[in-house]
Amino acid sequence: MAIVTQHTAEGSTQSVLRLHNPADQSFLYELPVATPADVEQAVAKAREAQKNWGALTVDNRVSYLLRLRDVIMESRDEIVQTVIGETGKPLQDAFVFEVLAVCDFITFYTKQARKLLKTKRRKVPGLLKFTKKVEVVYKPLGVVGVISPWNGPFVLTANPVIQALLAGNTVVAKGSEITPRSAGILQDLCERAGFPEGVCQVLVGDGMTGAALTSADVDKICFTGSVATGKKVATNCIEKLIPYTLELGGKDAMIVCADADLDDAAHGAVWGSCVNTGHYCCGTERIYVEAAIYDAFVSKCVALAKSLNQGQKHGFKEDLGAVFWDRQMTIIESHVADAIERGAVANTGGQRLSDRDGLYFPATVMTNVDESSDLIQKETFGPILPIIKVANIEEAIAKANDSCYGLHGNVWTKDIQKGRNIAARMETGSVSVNDISMIFGVPSAPFGGVKESGFGHSGGDEGLRSFCHAQPILFGRYGGHDVGYPYDEKSYKRLNKVLDFTYKNPVGKFFFG
């Protein structure tokens, strides 16, 4: 809901969000902002609810999540229309990113939970295997705080919440002040699915609400947002010695090799830069193309960019939506203007569509871009394609890695092994070969960034288990004791003989080697 103003309600000291639709700037509603006291109360409620929720079997919790999936499917139109109202994104983007993906995530994680969260017996190596056995129990952390962003307001709230709940935690989430209902509807859906009270709470709030949540009595924080705020979140968590996961955005690079399929690569470039109006943490923001195919590639991208249908008047055929937030529009305009001042050329687009009531910036293909410009150095988060010519792949890799960000990247070539080799050299959390950056949508893969793009993972085995404390329990196989007092010369010599037999004697090496 791109246009947001905040004021104090009459007769009250509580702040209120006044929200407007970015597609036409029409008024939507006002919502009161949760206070620090509200946060404290919600966390206390979650703490109490966790006692029973955490005591449920994994199968019981799976049943709740599968009911939630059913409710989401039944409520798909409500979710989509709520998201569109607050963001102005195209119908298909809202459906795929916010509904289909969440149903996919629930299906995958509920299947994995039974395997990943059950008590596991681990092999005891070395000499201790004759006298010890060990099991690992995956215990919930307790109460998890989730702070989600405005670009994927439902999915980026639901994804960590689903994993946290399956692991036996309860959750207090805070959606963005730009899209509060798109996040808050998750609590409504959980209630419709019969979840116990206090298990999943989503607060309406602003930055102060988020700060209160990170300082509250929670056991983990999952944060998606800016680098600056992410560092503050990390500082709070370190102060309390609790774990945290940060997803802080990126400046993803695309490398197009001379042997790439140009039609596929151009489509990948335009879609990867413009999907979700470019408000996508894994969106393509820098494109490095070998000189031999540069002109042809640019021409194809320009033609595709010009062909996109933008605005809700196109209905089901809308390709590109509104800019979600007026402040983001300011950033996009600033980055494009800075690049043009430094000599860049906008081959199509280049300025906001001033003939519309809403916030619209067209797909913009930029060439001759100065690499010191904000368009290359900072996260733009808009439908902009800066295409840069490189002499060879070595130059492309060097330029792609020359960034403080490291979330994702993509490589385009007909030689798969070549693509794999280039991907391995990219300093990013993940890479795609001959595909756009959709790794977040693959729940079996760990998703996370390096450098200033974040810390920790969501998704995959790593993500689900990050919501647990892995507690090993050691058992003695037999009565009595195999080590301990009294110490004497005889026991010391015996230990030396054991060591020699284990790692020098052929028989010992066969069993322990």
From TrEMBL:
<dbReference type="InterPro" id="IPR016162">
    <property type="entry name" value="Ald_DH_N"/>
</dbReference>
<dbReference type="InterPro" id="IPR012394">
    <property type="entry name" value="Aldehyde_DH_NAD(P)"/>
</dbReference>
<comment type="similarity">
    <text>Belongs to the aldehyde dehydrogenase family.</text>
</comment>
<dbReference type="GO" id="GO:0006081">
    <property type="term" value="P:aldehyde metabolic process"/>
</dbReference>
<dbReference type="GO" id="GO:0016620">
    <property type="term" value="F:oxidoreductase activity, acting on the aldehyde or oxo group of donors, NAD or NADP as acceptor"/>
</dbReference>
<dbReference type="InterPro" id="IPR029510">
    <property type="entry name" value="Ald_DH_CS_GLU"/>
</dbReference>
<feature type="active site">
    <location>
        <position position="281"/>
    </location>
</feature>
<dbReference type="InterPro" id="IPR016161">
    <property type="entry name" value="Ald_DH/histidinol_DH"/>
</dbReference>
<feature type="domain" description="Aldehyde dehydrogenase">
    <location>
        <begin position="14"/>
        <end position="470"/>
    </location>
</feature>
<dbReference type="InterPro" id="IPR015590">
    <property type="entry name" value="Aldehyde_DH_dom"/>
</dbReference>
<dbReference type="Pfam" id="PF00171">
    <property type="entry name" value="Aldedh"/>
</dbReference>
<keyword id="KW-0560">Oxidoreductase</keyword>
<protein>
    <recommendedName>
        <fullName>Aldehyde dehydrogenase</fullName>
    </recommendedName>
</protein>
<feature type="active site">
    <location>
        <position position="247"/>
    </location>
</feature>
<dbReference type="InterPro" id="IPR016163">
    <property type="entry name" value="Ald_DH_C"/>
</dbReference>
